[in-house]
Amino acid sequence: MAHRKKDPNAHRCLVQNFMKIISETNGISLADTIELLLYSLRDGQEHESLRLTEEFRHLIAKFQQDEVKIQDLLEHPVAEALFEFFKNFFKIKN
User: How far is CA 85 from the centre of its chain?
Assistant: First the structure.
């Protein structure tokens, strides 16, 4: 998968939505978190964030079928937004 340039607006949108969803739910799976994220993005104007999230969900399915490598998931903009969320979360906790 080709490395893409980070869209700062989409990244910020994804991080903010992850913060909202994860803070409002308790221990749900990544798949359920992604579904809630997709649902919340469908009503808004964040088309790039929606596209990236749909792409990421598709990549997860392909990874589960051994069709893509884990690196493809880890380098995806949605994974980068999740990483930033958790990095900030652990800064607050410590």
Answer: 10
